[in-house]
Amino acid sequence: MFKKALLALPVAMAVGAAAQAGEWQDPNDVLQNLLQNNPDSAYLHQSEMNIMMMPDNPALWLVEEGEDLFYAQRGPNNVSLEGCDFGKGPGELDGAYVELPRYFEDTGKVMDFEMRLVHCMKELQGFTSDDAAVGQRHGNGSDIMKLTTYIAHQSSGMAWNPPLDHPEEQAMRDAGEKLFFRRGGAMDFNCASCHGDSGKQIRASVLPEMRNGQEWTKAISWPAHRAGHDNVRSQNHRIRGCVWQMRHAGIKHDTPVNTALISFWNDAARGEPAILPDLKR
Amino acid sequence: MLRNKTVGAGLAVLASTVLIAGCDGWMGETSGEVDITAMSADELADYLVLETDSYRFEQEAQEGGSARDRMVQDGIQAACSIEGDPDSGTAGEVIAMARESYEAPPGGPRLGNWRRGAELARSGYGYRIGHRNDDHGTREAGGNCYACHQMDPAEELYGTLGPSLAGYGATRGNDSSVVNYVHQVVSNPHQYFPCTKMPRFGRNNFLSEEQIAHVMAYLLDPDSPVNQ
């Protein structure tokens, strides 16, 4: 697995040389830098075991499987995903993940990564929602998580930089900020109830603070192998989990509340390098 | 109260379009019908929550009503949807709303059984919906106080979002003014702490009056481990 994962490096560097978002870096190097720069962050330092395991991150297996899937000719239309435009041109993956969500002319709306991936699998490859390829969203066995991990890995070490030039991008980001503070549900929680301060704990978990960019970049660095679940999880899965713990209504995938929240939370880590894939407790 | 409802009418039309078109439909082909850039951020946030089919609104909530009801804000939730502490005007309004809706139990607050209170303070079960819904028929919901508070000083697992309550009754006693105060806090803490992170356990019918009495005993009974 390391061979393949490491092989991705020179390719990414060669193509990504012109990217403004910075150069590709190994996720473990990104993490080590964050740890060194923030010796006092209880959130970043909370799990020594995970920090030690990071070079052998099990999520790297999915990078390899996802690469095969990305270039394979699949679906009723028997084409690869090389025609999929994640915002930087068809098949251009370097830096694409950290520059989402964004407005797409072809659909006339702001889309987050998973929405866009599903859009391409349906429109280009011809899958439908009934196919497991797009229907199954969670777990190491799912195509979506393999593809997500491979594609995200091509942006490792690059700075979060979701575009805000289009008025709808700005509108979704601003609405996402409101959503972050919108109270509701049986416990009156908003996201800031638990992510408003640094170093606070809920039970045994040290919580990341949204306004602390260096904590927040790790917080939003999904896909990540979640040790407690023994599975690689996505940004959308994390939102679903927190919404569930908040006792809000259950959130559906491919929906604009997800997109707005991600527009805001990626913006909140703007300029900080992404750890892709990460490893979490 | 802070919300502006002028967007409502036109948006209902779009919501039904979204349902028909499915996942790819929202604001795609239908974008001519609604201009999200014409809304304020607050309006758009409310619109996204309530009108875009983003949630499983049809599910039943354990406390009664639907999942949708959970996402429609009441006055305190709307006023407290802010970053940081409320300004003095907002704080005053929130305290007034909290006092207005507060009800003491018939005969006044009392202390129950601290052993039952200990279980309730530890349990984080209850009220989750969306997937793996919590089933109150098979397991009682708890108050999850330990998620945010230290209570029994011998307990090692506790959160720090709220202040330590270790020795709470030992330092305060449990005369009726203390009992009344603790009931007011557990039932609706915004009476004293406007826009606090602590849930309104009584007001939201999250805990029954009987359960609140047990939790109060856990805090105030001299025999409770909290006070050793």
From TrEMBL, chain A:
Listed GO biological process terms: sulfur oxidation
SUPFAM superfamilies reported for this sequence: Cytochrome c
Catalytic activity: S-sulfanyl-L-cysteinyl-[SoxY protein] + thiosulfate + 2 Fe(III)-[cytochrome c] = S-(2-sulfodisulfanyl)-L-cysteinyl-[SoxY protein] + 2 Fe(II)-[cytochrome c] + 2 H(+); L-cysteinyl-[SoxY protein] + thiosulfate + 2 Fe(III)-[cytochrome c] = S-sulfosulfanyl-L-cysteinyl-[SoxY protein] + 2 Fe(II)-[cytochrome c] + 2 H(+)
Major subcellular site: periplasm
Keywords: Electron transport, Heme, Iron, Metal-binding, Periplasm, Signal, Transferase, Transport
Record has Heme as a keyword: yes
Single GO MF descriptor: heme binding
Record-annotated Cytochrome c domain positions: 65-159
Highest taxon of source: Bacteria
Signal peptide: 1-21
One GO CC annotation: periplasmic space
Location(s), subcellular: Periplasm
EC number in record: 2.8.5.2
Family: Belongs to the SoxA family.
UniProt cross-references to NCBIfam families, sorted A to Z: thiosulf_SoxA
Assembly, per entry: Heterodimer of SoxA and SoxX.
Protein name: L-cysteine S-thiosulfotransferase subunit SoxA
